[in-house]
Amino acid sequence: MSTRGHSGRLLEERAPKELSDTSHTCARCGFCKIVCPTHPFGGGFETFSPRAKIHFLKDYYEGRAQITPEWVDRFYRCTTCERCQTVCQTAIPLVHLWENIRSEIVTRGFGPMPAHKKMGDLAGEFGNPYGEPAGEQPRWMLPEHSPVDKADILIFGGCTASYRMPSMLRAGATILTRLGIPYAYAGGHEQCCSSPLLRTGQLEVARILIARNLDLFASTRARQIITPCGGCSKTLKYDYPIWAKRFGKSFNVEVLHFSEMYLRLIQQGKLKPVKAVEKTVTFHDPCHVGRSQGLFDEPRKILAAIPGIRLLEMPNCRKESRCCGAGGGVKANYPQMAAAIARDRVKEAVATGADTLVTMCPFCQGSFALAVKELDADMELSGLETLLLASVV
Ligand code: SF4
Ligand code: SF4
User: Fold this and answer.
1) pTM for the whole thing?
2) Does ligand 2 lie within 6 Å of residue 329's CB atom?
3) pLDDT tens digit string along 265-298?
4) What is the CA angle 13-14-15, rounded to 5?
5) Per-residue pLDDT tens over the stretch 221-258
6) Ligand number with the minimum distance to the CA of 83
7) Of 84, 107, 130, which closes a domain?
8) Could you tell me the distance, in angstroms and rounded to a whole number, from the CA of residue 192 to the centre of ligand 1?
9) What residue ranges line ligand 1, CB within 6 angstroms?
10) What atom in ligand 1 is closest to the CA of residue 79?
């Protein structure tokens, strides 16, 4: 089960009264503060805690507080990792509140933060937050990959996998190719899924890109969209149906993270991991795949199906997994904090005694690659699909 608790309503459609009502239920227990990965980077001050932010929002929505640059900075120091929401004893939809106040900050001209604005401007101009030319999007493909124009399955590469960390995307396409399963791919036409824009409150650019993607998806007539990215899969699964309804566009497709597809193929007997991969691994649950989508068992079942793999869990795993530090625009605007959070997670992985840290999100993998280098850690990094590919004939 996802811990996200989506309401099925667009964030900006929630009335201030309704938002303030949810903050009234805060019991001030501070559980959210204990688990928040960014709170320790606020010098230990309570004002950087989720609990303090909730109380600011209560005052703000009831007209007793104003948005100031200090509060803007505090609200953007959040990876949207959902740990606070998971432990909140009164089930406040905290991440909804964080995303909502960010969109209000942008609407009222107090934000976003400079790096987010740059990301939004590039996404508006190029269709991706890296500012890469669209023609570069399919460059991850190998000669053996042969997408067809129309198929039931559409691969959505996503910006980070397509332009920066392609190994998971590449391995996933290779697995489908080897199994003879046809897939479509719209490389060069895909727009950013808009996860980074929605999480940083930049809804105006997001709505343009989402509308284009919805038209693109409709033109392929795919019945399933599959993606290797945690942020893309979460956004396509939970945000797109809401936006499609608002636009009056159709979105009758099933969205799957790659791990869901692999497990189905294994369970159907179509994908048979047979070659031993002798590795002792530990697994990092990406926040937007684990807590957001509830996909905790899928990767572990896949690892268990690969002969030779031995899994050593980190103390903080599954619902309690720690964040890689990159999400919610934190890596873009607060790179030092993001890097420190990633290093802490890599240290936890090293302490298990595993030789390989496995994840299933290119964004997490990018953060850990940097952290491993900075720590000079004796730790290999691997995408889940790379291990799986090594095991299939
Ligand atoms: S979503 Fe994560 S980073 Fe943001 S306030 Fe909650 S625990 Fe902290
Ligand atoms: S965990 Fe929930 S109830 Fe407890 S302080 Fe945080 S927001 Fe309030």
Assistant:
1) 0.94
2) no
3) 999 999 999 999 999 999 999 999 999 999 999 9
4) 110
5) 899 999 999 999 999 999 999 999 999 999 999 999 99
6) 1
7) 107
8) 24
9) 35-38, 50, 78-84, 94-95, 98
10) 3
Q: Is the peptide bond before 112 cis (omega within 30 degrees of 0)?
A: yes
**Tokens 């599954």 correspond to what residue?**
318
Q: How far is the CA of 132 from the centre of ligand 1 (A)?
A: 30
Ligand 2 atom nearest to CA at 90: 3
Is there a single domain that holds both residue 283 and residue 381? yes
Would you state the structure tokens that stand for residue 95, as one six-digit string? 């991440």
> Residue with the nearest Cα to atom 2 of ligand 2?
88
User: For residues 240-250, b (16+ Cβ closer than 10 Å) or e, as one string?
Assistant: bbbbbeeeebe
Query: What's the CA gap between 286 and 322, in Å, rounded?
Result: 8
CB-ligand 2 contact for 97 (6 Å cutoff): no
Q: How far apart are CA 32 and CA 30, in angstroms?
A: 5
- Which ligand neighbours the alpha carbon of 57 most closely? 2
Closest CA to 219 of 248, 259, 250: 250
Total of domains in the chain: 3
Range of the domain at 222: 114-263
Residue 2 falls inside a structural domain: no
